[in-house]
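pipeline stage [seq->struct] | target=Protein tipE | organism=Hyalella azteca | residues=224
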Amino acid sequence: MADFDPDPVVCKTILTEHNYGMKNCSWSSCKNGCTVDQYECDRIFVNYMAKKFEDFEGTEYYEDDDDIWVVKGVPIFVNIKGCGYPPQTNCTIYADEFGPVGSIFPCYYSRVRPNLVITDYSWEGAVHPMIMALIIPNLITGVSLGLLSYWWYPGCQKKENSYEIPPDQQSQQDGEDEDKEDDEKKIEDGDGGTEKKKLAETKIDIISEDQKKMNSLAGVETEK
């Protein structure tokens, strides 16, 4: 991390460049959109002193004294990324506010990289994206693994709840089931006997007709 000093110090604008063209806008103090190419940009350079802005006493610190302005001629950025999106970040307003030479305003410098200076900083705002970047993927992975385990691992599957009938009701239920089975069997046996009887009668009728035909044929041959 850049390890910014949480207490703002005093910054003073010493130079502003308004450039055109992609080559001249390889970087800018403020960029509308973090993934687009810029063809018009503002580069702002500042001096800053190692004095808290809340302790700033006024015009006596405007002079260019090396003992006061500890870092000189460094670029300043709108935030640690140097870019943003409306309405939170408006680079036109930013240039109008911090661009005029001689402007005095609070800024934050990096204790690890003293040449890195920004105008907008909060510890929560810097840490929050990193925390979310760690938590969200891990949370999604954990939920996915949990669901897969629930669906595929037999030990995690739900078992059907079986309702146990009390003993006295169970015996009564068994008796009713047996009576029902006996009735169904009787019905099946009765229907089966009726069907067999009908088939036998039909067979007898067919045999009788065949016998009559044979007798008729035998009588005709005898007469001849």
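stage status: PASS
auto-comment: Residues 180-224 form one domain. Strands lie at 9-20, 31-32, 40-52, 71-77, 83-84, 104-109, 117-118.
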